[in-house]
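Q&A log
Question type: sequence-to-structure
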Amino acid sequence: HDAVQAVVGDRARVQTPDAHAKSSQEIIGGIQIGFALCSAGAMVVGLFLVYNALSVTVAERRHDIGILRSIGATRGQVVALFGVAALVLGLVGAVVGVPLGIALGRFALFEFGENLGAIFINPEVDPGWPTPVTVLLAMAGGVLTAVAAALIPAVQAANQDPADAVRRVPGVAGGAWDLAHKATCAALVAVGVAMILTRHELPPRVGAFGGLLAALVGLLLAAPIFVGVMVRVAHPLLRRLLPIEARLAADNLI
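Response status: OK
Response body:
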């Protein structure tokens, strides 16, 4: 290496195959982390979409749930009802999402194939097709995410008092749920910030990317808290500025 570098001089930089492979592996590692973060972000977004959809369903069907409970439906049956709905959503999303993900991956490889060939020694980059095990794991991840998102709305629906639901008495979120929600948000944000601050003592990229992901999830979970604070601040002003129809619509949306 030194002898060749002495011959070449300042005209070029000599690099051994091992050093080139190491630098290539670092580039690949960064790309893999990027894809992993995108995948985790997609699962988080899917979790929130399913959670919001089922929460709205619980709110709209609260009277019907109360009737079911009044005629003998158990809490477990109500939870199973919403769990099956989430399972169907997860299966449909997995069946559509896995082929779409494969197509997007191959499209990206086709678009950046020339750049990859310029970076790596072997320009023939072809990852092939995912194995059946990989496809099944991806589908299972999507289905489990949807089912996990349905747990809280399903349990809340099952724990509603049947008499109040049938009489259409407005539901009130339990103090335990509210406290657990705020504690979870604060814990995730605190863990994320701590991981970012101590990233130099953690394994490479774990502190920065892991902390960023934890803090992001905590802030997303805290979105209802932020919205509630904004509503309390803006509500008195909006009641004076908006006409009665818009005020009723805003109150109903809140």
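Response note: Residues 102 and 130 are 8 Å apart (CA to CA).
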